[in-house]
Amino acid sequence: MNRYARDKRPNVKPVEKVELSERHARWRFAAAVFLLAFGVAALIYAFMSFLSGDPGWREIEASATKENCGGEFAFLYDLGASGLSARTENRALTQLYSEASEKAYQIFNSDLEFDGVANVRTINSHPNEEIEIDEALYRAFSLLEEYVNRCIYLGPLYTLYDDMFYCNDDAEAAYYDPRQNDDIRAEFAQIASYANDPETIELRLLGENRVCLKVSDEYLKFAEEDGLDRFIDFFWMKNAFITDYLAETMIANGYTKGSISSYDGFVRALDGSTEYSFNLYDWREQGPYMAGVMHYSDARSIVYLRNYKMNDLDIQHYYEFADGERRTSYVDIADGLCRSSLDNLVSYSQEKGCAEVLLSMIPVYITDEFREEEANALTAEGIYSVWFRDGELCANDSKIMLEKK
Description:
- By secondary structure, the protein is α+β, with helices and mostly antiparallel strands.
- The protein is built from 12 helices and 16 strands.
- The protein has helices at 19-38, 40-52, 86-107, 120-125, 135-146, 155-165, 170-176, 182-195, 217-226, 238-252, 354-365, 372-377, and strands at residues 56-60, 73-79, 130-132, 201-207, 210-215, 258-262, 266-269, 276-284, 287-296, 301-306, 318-320, 326-328, 344-349, 383-389, 392-395, 401-404.
- The strands form 4 sheets. It has an 8-stranded antiparallel beta sheet. Strands 3-5-4 form a 3-stranded antiparallel beta sheet.
- Residues 1-52 have low confidence and may be disordered.
């Protein structure tokens, strides 16, 4: 029986809510009252204001004419700060961001294929065949190889976790939980053993953006008998790579007066000319609470890992049982079980992108016990961290600006 059919799940499209949107809502309400009072003259004035374009911080949204990943990100930009017309800049940014969001959605997609696009789904559907892929996707695979990270080979397990996260009750979720179901745990261990063996599965980088997913006959037979529909998947790591791709696309085109953040904890500030703040949360029995704020003014990449839900969108990566036990997407390559050494860990770097920061964090976070010395060792690579120890805010960056709440 194929347990991996995704068409039975609700199609949840993540949309991050930010304060900027609430201000727009108040503006629209005020504008409506104004129009009722002053009629056509105000309507003309509002129309002319729209055409001229107001400078200042705005959220740049990807066009909805084509499917893209823009709904999973917030792109805030200081229009006009570079000296260009705010209206012209807004139009150019919207087009560029829409194109980049559409491309990222397609090339990292493991569920759908698109005409003329070789993506993750294409690779999974053509094992042992050479395929030419997009340069951005090839760079992502190269980075995984550089960091000797094999988490993408847990694709089949990610699908099972995905099934658990979308369950409606604990009894259903327990079936997919390897910590409660011995049969599932044995299956997880088998898939993890395949994922760890380069002789069984290996994505070979052949140069010139060409790859070949080598899969052994034994694993191919196992996949067919078990109804597996994928061998590799970025899953929860995907938005780290997409955040970098979107940010680097903007920077390459000269747009640096803003920041891009995903709903699941990946942030890129594009330059160091703006004061930013990042809220720091900790966990209590009642749930997460804001315990501090990190202030910074540099082109910083931030990765925020947490083992609890923050909002309704987190159904995609978490399940919490009635007794408080939580399951997450942070899966250990060793045995396929999810682990987290802390409730939350924030790491950042001025030199590295989100994907590199994440790949450096994984051995520190996806483990049973947090070892402070391992987090401190990453400072030699320019990666610093903030965490909580018994409610105490800790950091290994002497220059960090923290505000306790």
